Amino acid sequence: MSENELTRIVKARQLPAAAIVIDADENERTALARRFGIPAVNAIHAEISLEEDGKAVLARGTLTANIVQNCAVSGEEFEVSIDEPLLMRFVKEGQIDPALSEDEEIEIEISPEDCDEIEYSGESFDLGEAVAQSLGLAIDPYAEGPEADAVRRAAGITGDDTPSGPLADALRGLRKE
Length: 177
Description:
The chain has helices spanning about 25-35, 125-140, 150-155, 165-175, and strands at about 10, 20-25, 40-55, 55-70, 75-90, 115-120, 125. The chain is α+β, with helices and mostly antiparallel strands. It has one domain (about 10-145). A 5-stranded mixed β-sheet has the order 2-3-4-5-6, covered by helices on one side. The longest helix is centred in the last third of the chain and has 12 residues, at about 125-140.
């Protein structure tokens, strides 16, 4: 049994001709919610086409999900819809450019067309785990729910556009002179 919550193994030598559809079942969604520290993953759906790209496999598609997360301000639960494009390149272990070693500090320009390279060993890779990781990256850890502004007002926090306090009052006074 795999340790990943959303496992979908694909054999690199026998790529499917049609797009792969991934819909997580209830147990997988519950496990993903626990993994990402959110109250619920109500739905996750991905459609991905695979094609050979030299010695790698290029995966293109979309990820949609409906999750429940906690507001960063009030802590209340609220629903969030996620709709993300997916672009990944699965590369056989040892095929990633050694010039991009983690030991060296180099600056790399990344364009929107560049994609994540995911190393795999053996004859297959886990497309489901890649989708799960993409979901994790799409979740905004500082998302604010619909009651965030009301909670700020109740706490006396006015926001960045109208600073308050003694220093702000003094600066406003200087600006008028």
